[in-house]
Each structure stands twice: as structure tokens, then as C-alpha cells.
Write a structure and sequence with these properties.
By secondary structure, this protein is an alpha/beta fold. It is built from 24 helices and 37 strands.
């Protein structure tokens, strides 16, 4: 059985590659034949901004095909129906007007000729006469029939359903057929969704930011609602076109504000728009809401007052939003409040909310993502929830991520799937590309999702696939389905990158029918988004289907996973390669690589699977190679099935992956003239950024693992430079020595010359060192920054004749902070805790430094707190902070001076920092991403004889300011 598991994985990959075809640099012959004509045609294509996504209703080009569609759909008949059916008819009118150039006016009686007839048996006598009741009876409220029926010599195309919601989904399906130029003569389609819960999860915040959002800010304007925006209607149309029927509109890391009485009016207005397209509004609930909103001193689920508060809140919500869907909850994970805070279980917490919602038909989606420590991360969800199986309410459903870690480019299917026969379960997929390249990398995730959905858990025997589990076909669940963390923002094209919308489309279509294949969906999306030109369809389809494996090769070999920039709350987190700060996940050392999760010698993660899977994962011989380093720690010289060593595979895939990204751009460029100029240019520019990012991944990881293993690449020679330490403080106006470790990955010794690439106004002197083959030496390079404080990226540039240099490696780049030496400062204050490391010559500024007579500096009144993260350099690693306005008094000598204040956070967001003097704002830093810092500059006037000056440090309401350093120098 174990060898079968491995073989299935290989065959699935082979099948996908065959379906996708290969991506090559050469222009297809047919494209070359029409290049000249296409080049002149570019000006005739209407420029598009991507706002319509896949709901583009462009005229059918083929005259004969257009004639057939017009003949079949020459009129539109609707007899009755409610708001959802009206939305369906409005979409048909809009779509057929664009596709056929026929402006249809809905009528209530059948014409003498062919017609499109839509409705339900209860609303339409025509539907009752054309579609037998038995054909609709098993489809539920969301299923539909699309069928051509001939009666009395008259042919009608019918979209029929048991309920209006099904009519709406059927209408979008019919339009999809025309958009993709599928014939409708003799059409006979019956469909219903595989799962009742098909959810769009938004990680949007009240302030307009989006956690893990890469397409601008939130388009939910809470500051304007209940005033409505046309975009809300288009959003609802887009979701309904995919068959999605629910939306969670706020972040899983949420405040309680969304449940407050004033906020409900905003939610109700939005819910009204969504309702007309069959979408139920849900809200992420903060488990501590009874404390934050209700003024209680506890959120204990066993407390009668807490239970009463939730019951009253649910009643209030349903009075305002009668079709409210329910709550999503993240509890006791990554610092979120939850029932475990009171000695209760996850089931106790979920059942508390489920009980409050049950009288109204609401559902609680309780996230199974629990992350307290990196060491237990892979097993914690399983160990927390399996013992609770059968203890959750029947209107509670566990929302389980596709893998045990966190949306990595490669990880096994979560062992919870199939392990909860008595607990409703649904799958959570991440449409936004948090770990798969943001909106910069093309990474079509449908093949990844299909691999997870098709994984056989074997927990209830063969064919207990994840897809069957989450569609209720393995266990008798009452609630089950799909949740997708969305990639929408206020960018005009919704997803930041035009091609990223393919993931949105693919998620929604799989949620409706997980049996659809990746090639089918890639083709469908391309046709609907870019048209039906065969060259465009073939090229874009190949780009999509090959992109996941290309991204994996560029970034994370053999399942090693989690090599990105350390986690933080910023939009830049989880993008850049950062192997030196993520060693807890890949366990690389001088001899080997990989995380041992075996029962024999590791953390016993493999024991969480069915016996056959466990045995395959446990065995080095039978473990699927794409998961090798997720499950095993192996020597760099361990040989794969093809005879290649692990280290050589790492080198080869990173170089070939980066090369393929370049080929992707060239393939896209062959479509010049076949795609409108605006989108053609937009996508080309994004590919340019992806090429740069792929080079950075290639050089960083090749340099990192050569540095550890000192095993040369069998096919390539290079040298590399790494600045040590990776985070530096440089003194302004003085010579600073920057140590650069130069490593030689060639077969012979080399004389190397290393310089530092610096900004204008700096001085730099190169250093020469001899480096033996497979060795490293330190070159000490001198740099002299200008005298002003600054934050500047410097880049080590070693050379050795014509030998290749891994010049894009992040190991050779640092963001240096430049600060004046203490000898040139009136005040040189390094802010932090009383025990933090101190910059040479600087004076500590901690919460203990209160102002007193005769002091040179100190806090007046309230004092801040202090933190030391241990990250970055001595100046940036620690800081003082406060949510309150705080006064720092400085003794300033006579004359004009400037105070320079350094703000930022080594780990996560840093909110706005405001500095005022005498009540007048002098400087402000807006929100900064993690590891991003700013110097603020504040003029100070000591007058003729010197004086004490108060710096008022503050932030925006409910936010916290940070101060890492304060230096005062004479002008």
C-alpha cells in the first residue's frame, strides 16, 4: 500500500504536466505566422483594467456561432419569482446584450419562436410544463437544470430550479457556456453543489488594512457604510457567478467592534446587497466580546452571564439581519482569546456560540488552526480536536486548513481530515498568496488544492478522500464545505495581479464541484478572462498549470517549507527568502537538512495518519519525494530516485526554476496583439518583478546551503558574499568596517576583490582576500556614510575575474542604520529595557529614566513600557512604547539643534508615531511594516542660553508608538 501511495503522487504530477504541456521560449509556429497581423491589431483591442474579472461579456466573434446563439436565445421569459430570480434575469440581460448584441426585454408569455425560459415550478407554469418535477426534486434549493426542450415544434432553452437561488446559479452557468463558446444546441445539464457551505473569508480590518492582502486596501468602507457602493453589488455578482453562498467580511484576528450595536446598521446595509445574490453575511466574532462590549469581567462559556450576553447579542443581530449566517471564530491561537483561558475546551466555546445562534439557523465555523509554538505546530490541531470528536453542537463546524502548518507551497494534507467522524468539518484554503508569492509571483494553486482534495485519508477505508470528507460523503455531517481566504482588495482589478484572479475563480468553482480538474478550470478562466483566441488560451493555460511547480522549485525544495521572511503582521511578511531566521522549520546544519517528523526518531507526526499512509511517510524509501524534507532529516548527500543528491537537487531546481520564470515572461510576450495593451503591459511588468524575486530566491538559497554544506554544485561555479552580522549599525561621518564573508564555490582557489555598493555621498574602499576552493574568508570593507542619520541598504559585491557571482542573494544585502557617534551628539540615547544591549558610547533611555532636577533627560509624568525583541542590531532590537501621549524632556544647549528619533518594530507593524513640541506637530511616521524603520527629524531651539524642551510622543487613537533611539545634534 505504501508504494501505491508514492506511485499515485508521481502519476498525478505526471498527468498534470502532460495536461499542461511544456513551456518553452520559442514562439509557436501559428503565433509566428500571425505575428505581423497581431501586432497591428493591438490598437483595435479595447483597453481593459481587469475590473470585470471573468464576467466579461464580449461579442461572439464567429458569425455562424453567433447566429446559432441568437436563434436559440432570441427572447427571455420569466413568470414571477423573487429578488434572486430578478438578479438572475438582470445578469442574463446584461450578459446576452454583450455576448450577442441582443437587448432582451423579459416577458411573461412564451413567444411563437425559440426562447430562453427561466424560473421555478412554483413561479412559472411554463417551467412546470417543460421540466418534470422529478428532475428538480433531488436538486435542493441550489441545484438547477439547463436543457433545450422542443414542444409543439418550438424549441426552448430552459434554466429551471426548485428555488430562485438555483435559477441564479443556472443563469451564470448558461452565460459561462456562451462565454467559453460551448454549443447549447441540445444542451442538457443538471448540477447541484457538492457542499452547503461555500464561503469567502476576508481578513479585512476596520481601519481598511487587510491582513495578508496584496491588492490594496479593503473595499469594505466601514467609515461610509451604511452608505452603499456600486462595488458591493459587483462583488456579490462575482461571488454568485462561482456559486459561493457566504462571506465572512472581517479578519479572524478581529476586534469585538463588529458586534457592537452601532456597527450592526453597517452590516445590515451590506447584507442587503449580498442577499440579492444569495450570499449570507457572516462575521468573525471575538470570543472576548462579552468583556470588550458587554462590560463583563469574564468570557467563560460556563458563566450564565456570558451565555445570556451571547443569546441577547444573537437576538439583536437577527432582528437587524434576519438571514445572518453566523460566526467564524479563531480562539486560543496566536494570542487570541478563547475558552481555554478559563480551563474549558474548544467544544465548550463553540457550543456557547452555537447555542445562541441555533434558534435562528445560524452556524459557528470554529477554526482548527491552533498555533502556540513552532515545535508543536504540526501536531497541535490534531491533539486538541480529536479527543473532542462528537462533543461539538450540530450547528458547529470545524474549519481545517489544507495542511498542518500554514498554507505552505507544499505540505501534506491535514491529518484531521477523516479523523473526526462525529464532528462537522470543512476545509480552509488560502486564495490570497501569503506564502506563495503575494501578487508578484504567478502561482496557480488549483493543482495544489486538487492534490489535497484527492488525497485518500483511508480513515474510513479506501476512497475516504479529503474531497469526500468535506462534502459529507464519508461521515454523516450536517454542515460541511469550503472556506477560501480571499485575495480581493480595492485594486481596480480586485486581485492586484490580473493572473491572480485565476485562483479566486478556481477556488469558487472547486467549492461548487471538487471533481473539476485543474486543466478544465484553467482553460475556462482563460476563455472568460482573455477571450477564446486559441493561442491565448493555450499559452495562458500552460502558464497557469506550470506555475505552482515553478514557484516550488524557485523557493521550497522537497517539502522543506517555511523559508520566507519571518512572520509579522505586515503585507511584506512571508515573501522574501530568509533561511537564516527560519531554521526551526528546516533544521539545516552542516551535514543535512529536513524536519524529522517520524515516530522512530522524530516528533511522531507520522503517527497521526492511517496505517498505510503512516508507513509510507515513516519510510525513507516510500516517502513521496515532494514531502521528503517535511518528514525526514537527511544528509545533503542522500540520493533521490533519479540518483541526484538532495543538495544537487536544491541547486538544480533553484536555477532551473528561475530560468523558467524568464520563459514565462517570454511566453506571455508572444501574445502581444492578442491581449489588450493595458493588461498585456500590466502582466509583463509583474513578470519582471517575479524574475527579480526568483533570482533573489535562487541566489539566497544556493548561497545559504553551500555555506552550510560546502558541497559544490556539480554543474555551476560561483562565488558569494554575505555581510556578517546581517544587521548593522554604522556611525555617520566615520570609517566603519563591514565584514563580508566571501565563499568560493569553484574548484580552485581565487583572488577575490570585494566592495560595498553604497548610495551617493558615501565613500567605500574595496578589500582583497584569497579564498580556497570550498572555503570562506572574511573581507573587511571600509565604508564612510555621510554625517546625517539614515537607513540605507548596502550590498556586498565580491568579484573574481569572470566567475559567476550570486549577486541577488539577500545574505549579501543589509538594511544598515546610520547614526551619529556619541561624541558628536548632545544626547545619544538608545531606548529599551534596563538590561538591553547598549550601542557603544550611547546612554540608555528606559522607563526608569524619570525627569528630575539636574537631569539631562527624562520622562515627565506617565512613563512608557519597554521591549527587547532580540532581533536585528543593538539599536533596533529594543524600544520604549506606549499607547498614551508621553513627554520626554531634553536639556538642550544654546543654539539650534535637531532631534533625530528612530521608530519601527523588528517583528510586526509599527503604528503611526507623532512628535510634537509645544503642542505643534513637528514630525510623523505613518504605519510601517515589520522590520521597516524611519528617522524622524525635529528642529529644537535652545535659545541664547539653553533650555529644557519637551518632546510629546503620541500615536493615533488606540494605537501604540515606538521609540528605538533619540539623538540630538547641533545644526
Amino acid at each position: 500500500m505504501s508504494s501505491d501511495i508514492r506511485r499515485r503522487s508521481v502519476l498525478a504530477a505526471a498527468g498534470l504536466a502532460g495536461a499542461a504541456g511544456s513551456l518553452v521560449l520559442s514562439t509557436p509556429a501559428s503565433a509566428r505566422d500571425t505575428q505581423a497581423a497581431a501586432g497591428s491589431a493591438v490598437n483595435t483591442l479595447e483597453a481593459e483594467d481587469g475590473y470585470e474579472l471573468w464576467l466579461r461579456y464580449r461579442r461572439v466573434e464567429d458569425a455562424r456561432q453567433l447566429k446559432r446563439y441568437r436563434a436559440a436565445l432570441r427572447s427571455l421569459v420569466r413568470q414571477g419569482g423573487g429578488a434572486l430570480q430578478r438578479s438572475a434575469v438582470a445578469e442574463l440581460v446584461r450578459g446576452l446584450d454583450g455576448l450577442l448584441g441582443t437587448r432582451l426585454t423579459p416577458r411573461s408569455t412564451a413567444p411563437s419562436g425559440a426562447a430562453l425560459i427561466v424560473g421555478t415550478p412554483s413561479s412559472s407554469a411554463l417551467i412546470r410544463s417543460l421540466v418534470p418535477a422529478a428532475d428538480l426534486g433531488e436538486l435542493g434549493d441550489e441545484g438547477y437544470v439547463i436543457r433545450q426542450v422542443t414542444r409543439h415544434g418550438r424549441t426552448s432553452t430552459v434554466v429551471a430550479a426548485q428555488a430562485d437561488r438555483g435559477v441564479l446559479y443556472g443563469a451564470f452557468h448558461l452565460l459561462r457556456l456562451v462565454q467559453t463558446r460551448r454549443p447549447i444546441d441540445g444542451v442538457d445539464i443538471t448540477e447541484s453543489p457538492a457542499a452547503p457551505l461555500r464561503v469567502a473569508d476576508h481578513w479585512d480590518n476596520e481601519n481598511g488594512s487587510i491582513e495578508r492582502g496584496y491588492a490594496g486596501r479593503s473595499f469594505f468602507h466601514w467609515d461610509r457604510l451604511p452608505e452603499l457602493d456600486e462595488r458591493y453589488t459587483d462583488y456579490a455578482r462575482v461571488l454568485a457567478s462561482l456559486g459561493l453562498n457566504a462571506a465572512v467580511i472581517n479578519n479572524v484576528n478581529t476586534s469585538a467592534d463588529y458586534l457592537s450595536t452601532p456597527f450592526l446598521a453597517k452590516l445590515a446595509a451590506l447584507a442587503g446587497v449580498l442577499r440579492s445574490y444569495g450570499i449570507a453575511l457572516h462575521v468573525t466574532a471575538n470570543f472576548a466580546a462579552p468583556i470588550d462590549l458587554g462590560g463583563l469581567d469574564t468570557a467563560d462559556p460556563f458563566d450564565p452571564g456570558v451565555r445570556a450576553w451571547w443569546e441577547e447579542k444573537a437576538a439583536e443581530i437577527y432582528r437587524t439581519i434576519p438571514d445572518f449566517g453566523g460566526f467564524l471564530v479563531k480562539a486560543n491561537s496566536e494570542g487570541r482569546p478563547g475558552p481555554l483561558d478559563y480551563g474549558r475546551t474548544h467544544a465548550d466555546g463553540a457550543n456557547l456560540l452555537a447555542g445562541a445562534l441555533k434558534p435562528y439557523g445560524g452556524v459557528v465555523m470554529w477554526r482548527a488552526f491552533v498555533h502556540d509554538s513552532d515545535k508543536e505546530w504540526d501536531r497541535q490541531g490534531y491533539r486538541d480536536f480529536v479527543p473532542l470528536d462528537g462533543k461539538f453542537a450540530d450547528n458547529a463546524v470545524l474549519q481545517i486548513k489544507n495542511g498542518p502548518i500554514d498554507f505552505q507551497v507544499r505540505e501534506p494534507a491535514h491529518p484531521l481530515f477523516g479523523s473526526l467522524p462525529h464532528t462537522n468539518s470543512m476545509i480552509e484554503l488560502q486564495v490570497t498568496q501569503e506564502y506563495t508569492g503575494h501578487a508578484t509571483h504567478l502561482c496557480y494553486l488549483v493543482p495544489q488544492w486538487k492534490e489535497v482534495l484527492d488525497f485518500d485519508t483511508l480513515k474510513a477505508g479506501e476512497n475516504s478522500t479529503v474531497a469526500r470528507v468535506v462534502t459529507g460523503r464519508v461521515h454523516s455531517y450536517s454542515h460541511y464545505g469550503f472556506a477560501g481566504v480571499m485575495n480581493f482588495g480595492d485594486a481596480r482589478n480586485w486581485t492586484g495581479s490580473h493572473l491572480a484572479a485565476a485562483n479566486t475563480h478556481g477556488y469558487g468553482r472547486l467549492a461548487w464541484n471538487p471533481e473539476l480538474s485543474a486543466p478544465e478550470l484553467a482553460t475556462e478562466w482563460t476563455r472568460m478572462t482573455f477571450g477564446n483566441d486559441p493561442e491565448v488560451v493555450d499559452t495562458v493555460r500552460k502558464l497557469l498549470l506550470n506555475s505552482w511547480r515553478t514557484y516550488e522549485d524557485c523557493t521550497s525544495p522537497l517539502g522543506v517549507g517555511y523559508l520566507t521572511h519571518p512572520p509579522d503582521g505586515s503585507v511584506t511578511g512571508h515573501f522574501d527568502p530568509s533561511p537564516t531566521t527560519t531554521t526551526q522549520f528546516h533544521h539545516s546544519d552542516g551535514t543535512g537538512i529536513g524536519y524529522d517528523r517520524t515516530a522512530a526518531t522524530g516528533d511522531a507526526y507520522t503517527e497521526l495518519y492511517a496505517p498505510a499512509t503512516r508507513d509510507a511517510y515513516e519510510s525513507l524509501e516510500d516517502c513521496p519525494e515532494e514531502l521528503l524534507l517535511f518528514l525526514h532529516h537527511v544528509p545533503y548527500t542522500h540520493r533521490l530516485d533519479d540518483g541526484t543528491t538532495v543538495i544537487q537537487h536544491i541547486y538544480d531546481t533553484h536555477f532551473s526554476g528561475a530560468e523558467r520564470v524568464g520563459q514565462m515572461r517570454e511566453a506571455w510576450r508572444t501574445l502581444h496583439g492578442r491581449v489588450d495593451r493595458r493588461r498585456s503591459k500590466d502582466v509583463d511588468e509583474v513578470f519582471g518583478r517575479q524574475i527579480d524575486a526568483a533570482a533573489q530566491w535562487r541566489d539566497t538559497l544556493a548561497a545559504y546551503w553551500f555555506g552550510l554544506s560546502r558541497i559544490r554544485d556539480e554543474h555551476r561555479d560561483w562565488i558569494q558574499g554575505a555581510i556578517r552580522p546581517v544587521d548593522s549599525v554604522l556611525f555617520a561621518g566615520e570609517p566603519n568596517t563591514v565584514p563580508v564573508e566571501v565563499a568560493n564555490a569553484t574548484g580552485s582557489g581565487l583572488r577575490t576583490v570585494t566592495s560595498i555598493e553604497v548610495p551617493d555621498g558615501w565613500r567605500s574602499e574595496s578589500a582583497t582576500v584569497y579564498v580556497a576552493s570550498r572555503e570562506a574568508e572574511t573581507a573587511k570593507v571600509t565604508v564612510v556614510p555621510p554625517e546625517a542619520p539614515a537607513l540605507t541598504r548596502i550590498h556586498a559585491r565580491p568579484t573574481a575575474g569572470t566567475v559567476r557571482v550570486l549577486g541577488s542573494s539577500r545574505l549579501g544585502m543589509v538594511q544598515a542604520v546610520v547614526t551619529p557617534p556619541a561624541s558628536r551628539c548632545v544626547h545619544a540615547l538608545d531606548a529599551g529595557t534596563t538590561t538591553s544591549a547598549l550601542l557603544e558610547g550611547y546612554t540608555r533611555l528606559s522607563p526608569a529614566d524619570q525627569w528630575s532636577d539636574g537631569a539631562e533627560f527624562g520622562w515627565v509624568g506617565a512613563v512608557p513600557e519597554a521591549s527587547d525583541t532580540g532581533l536585528l542590531d543593538v539599536l533596533r532590537r529594543d524600544y520604549v512604547r506606549s499607547a498614551a501621549s508621553t513627554v520626554l524632556r531634553l536639556k538642550v544647549p544654546a543654539g539650534r539643534h535637531t532631534a533625530h528619533l528612530l521608530t519601527g518594530d523588528p517583528n510586526t507593524f509599527n503604528r503611526a508615531f507623532i512628535v510634537s513640541v509645544d503642542g505643534v506637530e513637528e514630525a510623523r511616521s505613518e504605519q510601517l511594516d515589520g522590520r521597516d524603520f524611519r528617522w524622524l527629524h525635529v528642529p529644537l531651539d535652545g535659545g541664547a542660553s539653553g533650555k529644557d524642551i519637551d518632546l510629546e510622543l503620541s500615536a493615533k487613537e488606540d494605537e501604540t508608538w515606538h521609540l528605538s533611539a533619540c539623538v540630538v545634534v547641533a545644526d
